[in-house]
Fold each of these.
Amino acid sequence: TKFGDYGGQYVPEALMPAIEELTDAYRRYVLNNEDGFMDEFRERLADFGGRPTPLQRADQLSARYDTEVYLKREDLLHGGAHKLNNALGQVLLAKYMGKERIIAETGAGQHGTATAMAAAHLDMPCEIYMGRRDINRQRPNVFRMRLNGAAVTPVDVGRGTLKEAISETMRDWATTVETTHYVIGSIVGPAPFPAMVRDFHAVISEEIESQTAEKLDRSPGSVVACAGGGSNTMGAFAEFLDDDVELYAVEAGGSSLTVDEEAGVAPHSASLSTGEEGVLHGARTKLLQDGHGQIMESHSVSSGLDYAGVGPQLSHLVDEGRVTPVTVDDDDALEAFHRLSQDEGIIPALETAHAFGFLEAALGPDGDGSVEFAEPIVVNVSGRGDKDLEAAIEETEKRDLENAPEMEVFDQ
Amino acid sequence: TKFGDYGGQYVPEALMPAIEELTDAYRRYVLNNEDGFMDEFRERLADFGGRPTPLQRADQLSARYDTEVYLKREDLLHGGAHKLNNALGQVLLAKYMGKERIIAETGAGQHGTATAMAAAHLDMPCEIYMGRRDINRQRPNVFRMRLNGAAVTPVDVGRGTLKEAISETMRDWATTVETTHYVIGSIVGPAPFPAMVRDFHAVISEEIESQTAEKLDRSPGSVVACAGGGSNTMGAFAEFLDDDVELYAVEAGGSSLTVDEEAGVAPHSASLSTGEEGVLHGARTKLLQDGHGQIMESHSVSSGLDYAGVGPQLSHLVDEGRVTPVTVDDDDALEAFHRLSQDEGIIPALETAHAFGFLEAALGPDGDGSVEFAEPIVVNVSGRGDKDLEAAIEETEKRDLENAPEMEVFDQ
Amino acid sequence: MSSEDRAERTPQNARETSSTLADAFEEPAFVPYLAAGDPTFDASLEYVEALARGGADVIELGLPFSEPIAEGPTIQQAVVRSLAGGMTPERFFEFVEALDIDVPLACMTYYNLIYQYGDEPVRSFVERAAAVGIEGLVVPDLPAEEADPLRAACDEFGLDLVFIVAPTTAGERLDHIMERVSGYVYVQARLGVTGARESLSDHTGATLSRLEGYDVPKAVGFGISTGEHAASVVEAGADGVIVGSALVDIVAEGHEDDAPTAEIAAELESLARELKTGAIEGGQRRPRPERT
Amino acid sequence: MSSEDRAERTPQNARETSSTLADAFEEPAFVPYLAAGDPTFDASLEYVEALARGGADVIELGLPFSEPIAEGPTIQQAVVRSLAGGMTPERFFEFVEALDIDVPLACMTYYNLIYQYGDEPVRSFVERAAAVGIEGLVVPDLPAEEADPLRAACDEFGLDLVFIVAPTTAGERLDHIMERVSGYVYVQARLGVTGARESLSDHTGATLSRLEGYDVPKAVGFGISTGEHAASVVEAGADGVIVGSALVDIVAEGHEDDAPTAEIAAELESLARELKTGAIEGGQRRPRPERT
């Protein structure tokens, strides 16, 4: 249950039996394919989810950077992000375990929508906890969850964001644990979640491996993925941990890497790059916390990266030197958002845009050339940007970005 | 250039040379794969677009209707609808033809976004004409086009919807025809567009054929697709025209199949079911028109079906008895929208919802049993509903639908 | 002109006999366009008659269609006004009957209206047009390739069928068109849609020279708005000038300003005179070609 | 109690010697909880002292953590108030030092605060807690599986480590916990989070009977809000009752109504007395077991 010293199971006693039950189910169904679980999972991922997703050469970026850049198109997965890999896996697992109800937390709403979809698909009642502030920031995703038949329960505690929603979902789980499965949305939480969620997402790197082999007759040189909790990151890295492949985890640099201890606010979400070891939401990992151990309110222009913790395995891999953490700030992420939209015809999620901001910072015309990537570079396009349109436009208007499009089309 | 008496090339003389040039290019590149055009097209459709899209068994609908229902998941194509098949094909063709600029019209914005994406992907300047009213109804799609770098030009003539946008794009084309390709968004317009657009979309039915063969070792019994202009329809039907497969084109019944001649308004868009032969936008086909031949303003809750014309080949196939046209009204389409969202975890476009409304009307608990479908039924899920969230919720609130979800989650 | 003058005309092949429209181009001709019924039936009658007084040799009278894909904003708005005023094909024919002028008329409209009229697609319309005294048709969305049924009907009822030749029209297509055209050929001065312009396109000369071998009057339209435009187009070899948007602009502005009908009519007559004079002057500036 | 009393205590294995916390359960015990510093440092001191006066046998004093995943809304809000008032681990220890009571204290907090404090993770916190006279720790997000470092530090500095046993805890896990627990075992009366309830859960009896063989005082918490609750829980076999939310409710309501500190303190003391009395009565209702 550990990754070095990271990970573990720091949860209330009431949850431990469920976690033991889940650990057993994970071993039997996921690791040992009991009752053909993994076969059914893979088949549903293909038919319902749309796997495999393509590995596409990015023609314009390859030219811009004079290197080979490939895109792993998780944005094409049903729901618009990699999130379904995990949500479908866990909801199906809950069904195999005989659970009768699904709960989940969501921040930006991507995990919530993926879970709501999977639950509708598998005919499971579903309740999603979401911070009040996020509910009002992410209306379309709330609509989608409700349309899929999920209950959406506002969380009014604290700032009303992901952190509070996770805590609240854990509270529900502590009450309903006997009949309910909590679908954690990233490679965080108590064991076995970090390993299990990674395994559900590992299909991303499995496909990258077979697709680069088939198209290019080789492995990728570098894999780049944004990292909030880190599920798309570990999904994109998992198969390459023992190989000679460079792995870059791009965190949200927000507006600044400094912190405001007084206000308990970190204006970024760079847990891997700047966080300190601690215990949050069931696991020991790198955290954004103040000197006393209180968790900081994180920040990013991308609400999906806006989390004070990170997957324990990523913390471990960073300490080991296997994964290189880097940061991209809000401005550069927005520029990258526009660049990919205009140059490649793919509007990425703001989360995803961070990964491309890193390429530009390192390889672009004004890049610092600090990184020498091994070729080809595969960037995980973890999600599409439809959910972020309003936010991206609003944030763009606040700034003086070189490549921002004019938006003066509407009446009044 | 004709389908029976339908089709033809009813365009201003200034466009005829361009249409001859296009006809030649269509023959060479599309039909004869000159310079490997079709190979590149298919490869880009796979890598950029995400083909093949899955053929998924609809577990809940199959149970509900006690028959085998399969879903062709065009909603998973990049951009969220089948539209990219055609847009990518035409923009690539324009590149092969040496054109320097792309123009297109759009109604709901789906064709516009697909074209903007394809143009960004292939590095072609792009301008999209869109009725002012549609611009204000479809903000997210306008954002997407602008983000992809396309110019969006409002059309203020008439009601400011698709019909006017097409006319305006034709005017642009009449001016810039030497350097510009007009990417028509459906199987309408002068020859060779109806055949060419069909051929770009035919990949849908090619895949259905190979997927049913692989999964079920047989052909589909029935194929059901919604029909506005009819591009997803013909794409889903094309390979089966000579086979023993039932083909149903589901049109928008709107609020009523009657018309208001005085106001020049048809409160539906059922050109195949109720239209009269006439000439519009370059082709002879079935049209919604008044007794004098003036084109009616059509209506549907789904702006993508809201067009007074329809592809000439569909008109012909309906006359021949090969395709059965049916209608589903706004209410039933909305109910079907909610049903698919809740039961299958797929939020369909409102266009697409019409196809499912037809299943329910025929096979549902309150169905009239009027149709005996040959099994298995394949329904083309032509697009996803993200673009329609606001509209669907607004239209749902106006009605007393049995399966409408509560939407009271937001503040105040 | 009243319809009775030609109502009795028997079916014939117009191209093999004399054409009233072609005859109108004996001297450099001025061919104005107005949308019938813009903004009202009665005012529009006065406007058309003013053009006749101003020297029009042929008048292109627009029967408005809801989707005028070949028109620029000026004529689009005229179409909207006319339709809002209740214009229909039948009213259009009544309009022609009500006109009190002695200038040959061409009806400019879109194919769907011709197709839908009456019991026999195409033929009914042409028959009725002939009955009210219309001399010819101009159909902007009907290229020669699709024109056989209409050509046949026009031949049957003795109407001319005018085709448009664009700057992009050349080679076989030009031959194809010129085999089918009668009355006059509408030479589109530039690409695009109708609309008045400050300056003239330089495509005109090239198009006219491609047409040199064809013995049909060449009327140049698209963008002509002043007497000087008209003069230079005729000097370049045109047999006449077609002017629409510049005239419709006068109707539109007058309508907007609520100007008296007579005042608008006077303005139209004045511009018509300027344009006709310009055409004549253009003819004088060049060595007049022998007409065969 | 002032910290000097125990500051000199040397490291030892608490489980092998007498435990002040366990000793507090000689008669049916009342164990109240309050969040230190809720809503202010000074008021909170008075509230805790009022509980002591009301008959508390052990006081669980909450050191607030920003993510209290095991707490219901009542205690979540207490945490918010306390943190807003500037509570920190260091201030918490000062709070304990400033308390003038003679009731053993357990510190209830979350693991991250214990982990972060001082130079040596876990050990620094326990050392300091011992220095200010805290007798034990309750850590709701630390199951026995992860508790070895804290257990070792507690042993080193003579603190008890209280574990929670839930209705879902059974079999090997129960043994595992009971091997590590000291002071008392916190019997969670029902699933879920903390919070006062109208009626009691019927899980309690079952859990208590699973614990029968273990020689550690059993204190039942979650949902107890009245003297009668306390009585029936003790009657069912508990050695004591833990009451948090019902008390915090008094603080919260007083805070909201801007009530004088003394008035709130009096209310707390009164409810404390009711609960203590209930516990005693519950003990009298059942045959008192022989303690070995």
Amino acid sequence: MNPWDLIMNNAPALAIAIPLLGAFVTPLINRAGRKAMLVWVIAVLAFTEFIALLLVYQVNTYGIQVYVFGANPHTLTVPPDSGGIPVRIIFTIDGMSAFTALISATLGLVVGIYSVGSEKFQTAQEKFFALLLLLVVGMMGMALTGDIFNFFVFLEINSLAAAALVSYHLNKGKAVEAAFKYAVVSSIGALMILFAIAILYGEYDALNMAMIAQRMYQTGFSTYDMIAMTLILVTLAMKCGAVPMHYWVPDGYGEAPGGTSAILVVASQASLYGLFRMSFTVFGLSANTSSLGWFMIILGLLSMFIGVTMAFLQHDIKRLMAYHAVSQTGYMLLGVGVGLATLGTAAFNQYGLYAMEGGIFHIINHALYKGLLFLTAGAIIYRVGTSDLNKMGGLAHSMKFTAVFFLIGAFAIAGIPPFNGFASKLMIYESVYQLNPFLAIVAAIVSMLTLASFLKVFHSAFLGPKIYDVKEVPKSMLFAMSILAFFIILFGIFPNIAIHYLVAPAAHALANPLGYITKVLGGGA
Amino acid sequence: MLADYLIWIFIIIGLIFNGLGVIGLLRFPDVYTRLHAATKATTFGSIFTSLGVVTLAFWKLYETGNTANLVLSIHTLIAIACLLLTNPVGAHAIARAAYRSGVKPKMAVVDRLEEVNQDD
Amino acid sequence: MIFNLPFITVIIVMFFGFYAMVFRRNLIKVVIGLDLVESAVNLFLVSLGYVKGGVAPIYTSAPSTHMVLPTPQALTLTSIVIGVATTAMLLSFCMVIYKHYGTLDTRKVRRLEE
Amino acid sequence: MRNVLMSIVFLILLAFMLYVAINPGDFGSSTGEHFVFGAPKFTDMDNYFIHNGQNQTAANNIVTSIVFDYRGFDTLGEASVLFTAVLGVGVVLRLLGGGRNDE
Amino acid sequence: MIEDIIQILVLIGMMITAYLSVKSRDLMECAILLGVFSFLLSLEFFILQAPDVAIAEAGIGAGLTTAIFVMAVRKTTRWEVEE
Amino acid sequence: MMSKIVRTQANFLYPFILIFGFYVVAHGHITPGGGFQGGAVIATGVALVAVAYGYDTIKKWIKKTHLTAAEGIGLLCFIITAFIGLSTSFFYNFLANSGLIFGNRVPYGINPGYLNTAGTLPIMNLAVGIEVLGGLSVIIMYMMAYGREVKQ
Amino acid sequence: MISIWLVAALILMICIFLAIARAVAGPTLADRVVALDTINTLIVAIMIILSVVYSEVIYVDIAIVYALLSFVATLYMAKYIEGGF
């Protein structure tokens, strides 16, 4: 068997195994010197990105992909002698999974390149890069897996790696305290998910998502399902930073080193993916999707409004951006929530699907521009040494590129036309308006407040007299930022590329849980 | 039937010693006496209950010839050895630590260890 | 009723853990609460798979099929190792926090941070 | 005030969960009596493991065959969780006695 | 019957130790009671016919976690509320 | 450093714990136990020596870098074993029932240890055992090491 | 014949409860550690007895692991009391 076939056949497994292998080898390879380690890490991240692209290609070409670990052959989901049940761990990759995996791998690569410059003077760098790889593994695993316990394991990898990364710059204990908070919140959330998994297992004797969904549909939605659903959805909403449970977000994002906040954004988007996956695929057939959808919509509204209001009060640049991240998460919840609320009715084809596409498009846009903003914030802190907005000023004189990138990010997050934020926000406004005009009005107001807030930041950080005599940041950091800026402008001018190849397959995949179940279980349902 | 009686005797001895040890743990006045009662007596008692198991295993081996019982007896003997090795040392470590941390025996009149230490 | 006692224990221990995590302000106490919750979930998993009169899922003697369910035990093994990893990491965080702030009281830590 | 409110919420939740734990409802209704609890209406996955585990993986211990074969990928994830935790401990404790002095 | 009584006693012991380890102000006492809780949990796994899990809990929960807790208390502070 | 009795006992007990840990690891597919449990047992042995002799003595014998390397190597063995089955599928148990090394069937019943069985399971057990041994020991070592310089 | 083992296990279990009482009440830390040590020994005995009850030979392994490892926990406690590390 030639290597190309091997890669093509085993792409889902390699997407996890290669970065994992990379993480295991990184501390060992560090003995050969820092350069070798960096080359290794970047190579592994690039290969992961390649595999993620390959997955998107496969899904777009051949439909939903399954990969069964340890089976012979690897597509044998249901062993013939088992009576129609899947017994092994199955990776199920549909449009949404591939979409999330692509975002994770892309941001991982970008942050990896960025950190080559920004972490140059730290000790224990091999641990930092190994943790970065593990975080990528956690996000990719959460996106690709079709097994509910496997989801828990990857969630745990994700949380622990993220907590360790947050504490990387010890910063007089502040970072460690933020990391402690993050780790406690994540662990308790993961334990609740494990509890819910145990309930679901005890009821259906299955750990595969498709199998659970099918059996839940057959036997009806019981009280125990209700408990499990509440635990899972509330926990995942907490992990993605929706408003009543958002208190860990500013600390975690604010204290994370350099560009790592950018990848933490994607880490919480992986939880968002989990939220969508659970509510659409696992519980979507049996539970009352309308009330679930309204639950998401209300969470989204609260997040949007409170996030942006709190952001006005901040004078720490990273905390401010963190509150904006909460606020932007609201848009995604709103868009997809409208889709879920109208799922199965005539209104779905009218505007629900469009709203979902808007929400999902917003995920990738948010990852790109919030990633860019956090990277610029990291660049500012790298040169200036403080994150307090009141102490900054006049940076545009010396850090021209950073200023331009910051402006691109700020315009994108506020939804100014030539950038990508405009496209997705427009989709959300148009479709949400048809469900309830009030929602669209709130979204528009929040968008304006966001613009105001970021103009304030730009004014206080970059304009004004020259205070600091600093140089431009290293080239690797600029290169990483320029990648993101390029994609922001690309998706802003040609949104159809993203929608056609990434967003629409994802939205259709989410809206069609029966296709998912049929692919795994092979008929029936 | 000899084995039955033997097992009964072992178990009863073991239980009595365990019970006495725990009662001593509850009733004695200070750390050292409690340590004395608890560790010594419970080690002794646990070994005797385990010896009952060994007797049963040998008896069954003799009766049925099933080698599983041999494994049982050997493993139980290993467990007894572990108990014998670890417990006294643990007790010693606790007593020494308690003495060093300044816990005084309640009703003791002479403290030879202190005298020795003073001589140094 | 009496056979539900493991589950009642699970709920009660879990709520003690939550109590420690929410109402106690010491960071190590929070970790203790987390440990309790995790133990409770482990117990829940294992007792979920228990079959009355079943034997452990290991073929030692004659091939018996009346066994307790093996999957929850496998899941619990995973969960235990994850738990010790989390505990170790959180406790090392505690040590560093104490080093820098001189206290483990959450409210004092927050005040010192300002 | 906040504490009182939280306590009330806690107690209500506790009572609810206890009620659920005491009255398992339809959680064990079908095959009932020989399970303590749970009594999954379905036991086919575990039965598959019990019946075929020894033949397919040739291990006497079914738990090990599940941990390392059927759900081996979980074990890989779990091992990497431990690896992550060790890296995290190393990162956090790297300054005082953790890193430079010994290496 | 007697098996059930043993199991009930183990479970009640677990509840008691869990409660006391939450209530106590002395973190060392908490660590010790958590150790006892872990031992009883291991015994409960034993009774529930899960030997693999019982070994893991005995090794990790009872041995290592107690050691780690003791070291963490040593490196920080023993009393929950200072002053 | 603890008293001489404890140290002597630790000397005596450590090989015993080591042997028993390897027994638990190697017989993982026959008796209860396996990689995690055995690794934890051996790591507790390391913890025993560490507590008996004190950190200052023990750091000359056991280097943290060696333990980290052991952890990495164990994980590498594990994932490479999984990779070898890649031509069929990841984690494919290519040795079970094949008649090669480790490829025999376990007979029913109590046995003195037919170790030559169960395909890739013993290899994975051993790999995970090494990994867990390294990981847990290095956690113990880090926590013992932390904050020592300040006290002196 | 089985019942005597069960009765023995029950009595040992009650003994454990008494030891827990000492672990809770103990005025000094050393008292609690003594109680912990006692509980370890008793649990090892119970495990050995129960493995006879369940007639599973391999369960004795757990007791061995237990006897070996609880010792380490005791040593750590003792070292804490001594003021070590």
